[in-house]
Each structure stands twice: as structure tokens, then as C-alpha cells.
Amino acid sequence: MEPTGRREPTMREPTMRDVAALANVSTKTVSRVINGLPGAGTEVTDRVRAAARTLGYRPNLTASSLRRSDRRSATIGVLFEDLSNPFDAALLRAVEDRARHSGVLVLAGSNEDDHTLQRELLLSLSARRVDGVVVMAAGGHQDALQHERERGTPMVLVDRPPTFGGTDCVTTTNRESSRDAVARLAALGHRDIAFLGDRRTLWTSQERYTGYVEGLAQAGVALRGELVRTDLHGADLAETATAELFCLERPPTALFTAQNLVTVGAMRVLRARDLHRRVAVIGFDDFPLADMLDPGITVVRQDVPGIGRKAADLVLARIDGDTSPPVHAVVPAALVPRGSGEIVPLS
Amino acid sequence: MEPTGRREPTMREPTMRDVAALANVSTKTVSRVINGLPGAGTEVTDRVRAAARTLGYRPNLTASSLRRSDRRSATIGVLFEDLSNPFDAALLRAVEDRARHSGVLVLAGSNEDDHTLQRELLLSLSARRVDGVVVMAAGGHQDALQHERERGTPMVLVDRPPTFGGTDCVTTTNRESSRDAVARLAALGHRDIAFLGDRRTLWTSQERYTGYVEGLAQAGVALRGELVRTDLHGADLAETATAELFCLERPPTALFTAQNLVTVGAMRVLRARDLHRRVAVIGFDDFPLADMLDPGITVVRQDVPGIGRKAADLVLARIDGDTSPPVHAVVPAALVPRGSGEIVPLS
DNA sequence: AACTCCTACGTCAACGTTGACGTAACCAAG
DNA sequence: CTTGGTTACGTCAACGTTGACGTAGGAGTT
Fold it and tell me: Which residue of B has its CA nearest to A112?
């Protein structure tokens, strides 16, 4: 039997003390050299650097941030709904990219739209003394978020506004872009435009629905309640709902699908019934290969990297002490015509 | 002008000392209560808990891990190529999920396939004293990885093996699945099967190419050099290469596309030339909506969550002191027939 | 020559926490 | 009543680092 194994039995991580001993200086001098602070002569600097290299010294940021006056960990937390969702992932990527350019690393977690889990993750981040957090809030109450915010942690919400005050957020033009998309369909002559939306608890779903209503009103088209289907969480539910729409006596001639999985579900039904060249579709949220389908899917595309960058900018500015009033940044979305949104009604 | 603003001017984070003072006990007793260690009476425990709650005390994990003997940060680092790539994101998600169940958080970073950046990220992780790392290695030399590994940091490589020894890795059945896919095409009667691959520097590309060669050999089909196109980094290059193949005197009747963007590029060309119903295609790596195209794309699907889970399992086990010999775990991929791979040659 | 000022160091304590160890009180057994 | 053991605490120092401050020596000024 081997002795129960620590990975490196005897070797300890070298510390400033070790470097100092080897270079025959005080630890404070090593600190100065490592941090590039003035007050170390060239000869001593070289000696310290050489010692650090031979020992393989690596600064310990946790000890450093414990002692430092600013108490920074150079780390921010990012909580998303599900990192395996490309939307969340692209957002994370943008945040991470922007953060890295400020020497800040990202602690990432998925809250799975569960506020209990979100609360736990928030505690974990808090225990690690992150300098700030970017959060795609889980549904349900935001008490944990509010509590954390009130402790003074810089916080930015993405894709939904806070239910409490004093906090920045970044969203896209959900309502306006939805209104424009619906108005566009109406302008082509459509009078029976269905709305297919995700869970109604989501702020974005509500906004997009409001935009739909406004778009119809703006075009002078009456809203038909039976053409509105919500709470379609996932492509399967969207399929069922779409199928039902085409069993109506007066089926829709156009669909406004307010989320990308909903769009995909709807398209499946249209293709199965060979309606995809006759029923117009505009979807909210772009998705890969939307241009490869037949017809290409016209979508409202969010500027995901832009949203992430903005969120990171905000939280980093707050960490740097920016105390200006809270901001609700709106990153505009753009309509990308690909064919499916340009289909005219049969008449 | 306001005074240049710290976020909370006067308030300090409460510490164990504050809690101890309020509860009229020593800090050590607070430590025992917070960590659920024995040696605290019920009455004292209640008093400490109450004090902690009123002060809003949060344990400081960085101070704790500095003092603790095991020196754990309960944090692992994850370096991927580009988190905005769904493959990387799904992998991150799986790792994160598994880690969370052990109370471990994930520090994420994208190395953008640049080993200088990878080196910097590794230093950042090291400075934060992560307990281990999961890495999708950037191309080029792996010196920085090896160095970090030799310091004793538990490490698992994903999607490619290490160029140095003593390190775990997790990959999929690149060679075997490629061989089977090509053999499958040959079994349908195809004799002119093209290979379209990503950058040759990638280990996965090499393996998949080897599988292609083996598949042909196994079926007794001669390899035609002009049907092999590699270094197709991105869909655009794949399009060009595919177009060239169909300018050959004897064009291929089937394509084996060894990466998902390559598959998409190839499909674009086939559709543009109306060959998509006549030329067979099997792609390596699944992608969203592959089933929605016409025909659906037959793919070799990697078990991405399985790979991530396995990688996390390995690194967490090493952190827990597992000193068994290094493992090269292979998570099997599966063929998903959807139509494009079942097309038979014309004559 | 005495003075200031600056540079290049060093010394010390503290950041928030916990391991090692000490101690007082109590109970049970001899 | 002592002895030994257990329980419930407390005391102290240390983890690796840096802020505050001290000091020795040299250069420049009067």
C-alpha cells in the first residue's frame, strides 16, 4: 500500500518568504518587486526576480486581497439560467471577454431558473468575495438578489429588469421590435397574426406580447384572442399550440413566434403540413441555421455580444466606484429578413 | 461634488469578531458554530446564529482557505476555446453542474485557441489557487499546461490528449465513429467518398481522418487523394472546398464532413447546386436543427454532457487525493441517421 | 557643517479565519 | 477525595500578503 496520497507529498507552494530568503531581502521588498511598485533598486529587483523564477513562485491573490485595503478579488460572478443555452453562453462569452481586458476573471453558474439554487449560488459567490455580479435572474421573487445588492455588491441584471430599486440592468428592445415585426406583417396585408410566446412569468415574454398588441393596434388590426398562445416552454409545447391554431375555423396567415425554441416548434408543424411557404413567420431571437431552412426564417436578432459587453461595462464601472444613478441600458435588436417574414397572405 | 465614492462609505463587512462580540463568545466558538463543528452548546449555538443573522454575517472563504490546512478554494478553473461555441458551452455546463454538486464553483475562461492567452489565464487561475483545472487545450505547444501540471495542479484535458505524461483526459470515439460512418457510406455502394476536415493541427481532425482512411480500407475502397480536403477552418472555407470537389471529373457521391461548421458549409453548396438529395452526407458533431434541414443530416453525435461530467469527475477525484494512474477516458459517440447519410449512389 | 529631502530598503502588525493546545467545570469510578 | 475522562469553551499563533511607518545613507542646499 502506498501512503494515502496528497498529490505532492513534501513540496509546499513557495511563498514570498521563500523568495525573500533566497534573494536575501525582506518579504516587503519581494512584494514591491512582484507588484512593480517603486522602491526597489535594479540590482535587488533582478535578484528577486531570479529567485522567484528558480523557486517557481506564484503570487497568492487570495492572501493579497485579504490584506489589501481595496479588498478586491478581481473576480466577478455571472449567474445565468442555463449555460448550455447558446444565448446564455454568448452572453457569458461577451462578459468574460470584457472582464478579462480588465484583469478580471469570471465565476460562472447556472441557476436553472430556480431561485433557491440562485440563492445558494449567490451565497457561494459572496463567500468568495466577488467584486460584483451579472445576473440573468431566475423567476419568482428576487429577495436574495435584493439582499445581496443591499449589502453593497455591484450588480447588473441582464435580459430582465430588477423588481427592486437602485440596480442597473441591460435589456433589448423587446416591445419595440415586437411591435415593428407585427406591424410589418400587417403591412403585407396579414390580418390574422398569431402570437406564440414563452412562459408568461418571464418579463421578456410579457414585453413581447405587449409589443404584439401594440403592433396590431398600430395597424388597425383587431386582436383575436384565440390566436394568442402563451406559456410554451420548449419546442414541443410550441408544436402542439401551432397545430391547434391550424384547426381553427379561420387559421392565422402569419405567426409571430416570440422565442427561438417556439419558432423552431412552429416551423416543424408548418413543414409537416406543407404550410411553410404560405404562412408568414417572424421569430424573436436569431438561431443558427435559420438561414438554411426553406424559406429562411426572418427574425428579430438581439445584439447578444453587445448586451454582454454593456453589462460587463456597467458592473466594472460600479466596482471602480461609479456612483451615478442606476441605468436601464437598452441594446437595440434588428430585424433580419430572410424570406419567411415576407410571405404575403393568400387573400 | 460628492466625495469620490466607495460604494458603502462607512459600513464594513461584518466578521467573525463582530459576531463573537455580539454573542459574547470567542471567535473560535463562532467558527465552530458556522462550520457545524462539535464543541458548542445548544444555547451558545443559538446565540451565535442569532448574532450572525442580525449582523448579516457571511463567511469569508478566501480567509478560511488561507488558514485551513487543506488550502482548498472549492473552485476549479475551466479553460475552453470559445465559450460562445455551443459545444464548449455544453461542456462547461456539464462540468459546472457536476462541480456544484460537490460545492465547487467554476472559474471560466476562453483561450481563443491562443496559447499565449491560455498561459495568462492559467496564471490567473493559479494566482487564485484553484483546486484543479479542466482544459480544452489551445493549439501549439502545451508548455504552460505541462508546467502547471508539474506543480501538482490536478488537470484534465478534454477533446484532445496531453502532449505530456501523467495527465488525465477525456475524448470521444473520433477514430472509431469516423471509421464506422465511412464504412456505412461504403456499404450503401459509395466508392467516391470525400473527406472534409477542420485544421490539421487539431488532434480530433487527425483522428477523424485516420478513421476515414481505415473505413475506406475496411470496405476495400481505394483512397482518392483529390477527395481529401483539410484545414477548413470555418464554414466559408468548407464551401469553397466543397465547390471544388464538384468540379472534379469524377466528383464524390458521398461526403464525410468531420466537423459541424464544415458540414454546414458543405450543405450550403449542395443545396445551391440542388445536389442535397443526391449526394450522401454524414457529419461529425451534431448541431441544432440538423433534423430540420431537407434532408435531415445524419451525424455522429458526441455525448457532450457525458464528456463534461466525466472530466469533472476525474478532476474532482484527483483533488480528493486519487493517485491512481492517469486515465484516458473515451466517451462513445453515436450515429444518428436522419436521411442524408442514407442516400444511395445514383448508378 | 548642519539642514532638508529623497531613495532604498526593513520592521511590524493586521486582513479573517482556523489548528493546536490550554483550562475550567462536571461526572463517574476507584 | 482523588484520578481520569469528557464537554464546552477560550487563547494564541499562523496562513501569505501588504499598509503604515521607521531608518540609514547619499545628494543637494544654505
Answer: B97
SS3 letters across B294-314 = CCECEEEECCHHHHHHHHHHH
- How near does any CA of chain B get to the CA of A72, in Å? 11
pLDDT value of position A215: 98
Residues of the domain holding A137: 75-172+304-331
Of B65, B83, B125, which is closest to A92 when you measure between CB atoms?
Answer: B83
User: Does A9 map to a domain?
Assistant: no
Q: What is the pLDDT of residues B150-175, one digit of tens each?
A: 999 999 999 999 999 999 999 999 99
Which residues in chain A have Cβ-Cβ distances shorter than 8 Å to B88? 89
Across the interface, whether the CB atoms of B323 and A97 are under 8 A apart is answered no
Report how many Cβ contacts below 8 Å link chain A to chain B. Answer: 165
Among the listed residues B68, B155, B167, B66, the one whose alpha carbon sits nearest the alpha carbon of residue B118: B155
**Same structural domain for residues B52 and B162?**
no
Q: Which residues of B touch A321 (CB under 8 A)?
A: 4-7
Asked if residue A124 has pLDDT above 60, the reply is: yes
Of the candidates A39, A34, A102, the one whose C-alpha atom is nearest the C-alpha of residue A74 is A102
* Residue A288 domain flag: yes
d(CA A229, CA A194): 8
A210 in a domain, yes or no? yes
Cell of B90: 455544453
Q: Are residues A98 and A157 in the same domain?
A: yes
- Tally of CB atoms within 10 A around A53: 10
* A199 and A133 both lie in a single domain: no
Q: Higher-confidence residue: B289 or B265?
A: B265
Cross-sheet strand order for the sheet of A280-284: A228-229, A193-196, A254-257, A280-284, A298-301, A334-336
Q: Does A2 touch chain B (CB under 8 A)?
A: yes
CATH number, domain with residue B39 = 1.10.260.40
The four Cα atoms A68, A70, A71, A74 give a dihedral, to 10 degrees, of -110
- Which of A15, A128, A263 to mutate against chain B (most B CBs within 10 Å)? A128
Domains: count for chain B: 3
Inter-chain CB proximity B318 and A92 less than 8 Å: no
Chain B neighbors of A92, CB-CB under 8 A: 83, 89, 108
Same domain, yes or no: A161 and A309: yes
Pairing of strands B105-110, A334-336: unpaired
The pLDDT, as a whole number, for residue A4 is: 30
In this structure, are B247 and B186 located in the same domain? Answer: yes
Q: Is B132 exposed, middle or buried (0-12, 13-18, 19+ CB in 10 A)?
A: buried
Residue with cell 513557495: A14
Q: Does B249 touch chain A (CB under 8 A)?
A: no
Q: What is the pLDDT of residues B238-271, one digit of tens each?
A: 999 999 999 999 999 999 999 999 999 999 999 9
Residue A10 in domain: no
Based on the fold, state whether residues A47 and A139 are members of the same structural domain: no
- In a 3-state reduction of DSSP, which class is residue A12? coil
Residues A125 and A91 in one domain: yes
> Would you state the cell numbers that stand for residue B143, as one nine-digit string?
508548455
Question: A159 touching B, CB under 8 A?
Answer: no
What tens digit of pLDDT does each residue of A183-242 get? 999 999 999 999 999 999 899 999 999 999 999 999 999 999 999 999 999 899 999 999
> Which A residues in the span 256-285 are in contact with B, Cβ-Cβ below 8 Å?
264, 267-268, 271
Positions of strand C less than 7 angstroms from a protein CB: 7-12, 14-20
> Nearest nucleotide (C1') to the CA of residue A66?
C15
* Contact call for A7 and B154, based on CB within 8 A: yes
CATH value at residue A148: 3.40.50.2300
- Per-window interface: A 210-239 vs B, CB < 8 A: none
Q: Please indicate, yes or no, whether residues B240 and B327 belong to a single structural domain of this protein.
A: no
